[in-house]
Design brief:
Order of helices and strands: HHHHHHHHHHHHH
Largest sheet: none
Shape: globular
Number of domains: 2
Distance between the termini: 38 Å
Oligomer: single chain
Strand content: under 5%
Structural class: mainly alpha
Number of helices: 13
Helix content: over 70%
Number of strands: 0
Length: 237
Amino acid sequence: MAARGVKSPYRQGVLDALPFLAVVGPFGLLFGVVSREAGLTIFESLSFSVVVIAGAAQFTALQLMSDHAPTLVAVASALAINLRMAMYSASMTPHLGHLPLWKRCFVAYFLVDQTYALGALNFERSPWTAAEKFRYFMGTVTPVCFPWYISTLIGAWAGSAIPTDFGLDFAVPIAFLAMVGPMLRTPAHMAAAFTGAVVALLAAGLPFNLGLIVGGLAGMIAGAQVEQRIEREEEPA
């Protein structure tokens, strides 16, 4: 998904991110509906999406809050799910880390799964400067983050008019499959994904969705171990 003849990096970013509208819209609608059913006001639902801007963590925290889980568990679960953002940030630093502070603040705030996935796929093989990469990144933000706010607001406003069993939750697995699939390019990536999925399923019975945290940690450990083993094997004797 490099430049492909499109002169404007921003426009190319918008075009590359447009397919994500098919999942961002339903996902945001669903969160708006669920948050209203959990007792949040329209303003609180929208604020949740604007401040956190991380769908999986928002659903997890909201579910735990609805189940009257301890606040510490809800916060820790959301933070554990968002630990991947630290890895995203480290991956983007070589490309965007030399930008002015205000631009880095925008990148840090809008760095979500979709914008990271597109950036990671394009930045390594593109001839763009850091400024052009920033414009591309902001292009990917436009069809992803702003529709997330709008769809959350519509879902919260509609409230019970959109039933939770309407089938909008199909967007969650499709979105993550679309993002993760193209990035499973090395044995370390595949080991991390497979181990994390298996362990999370085996630990699904743990209370407060702790199985997801255990699976994520297991996946990161497995990926790191495989990568270190490959590096040792590639070192000259």
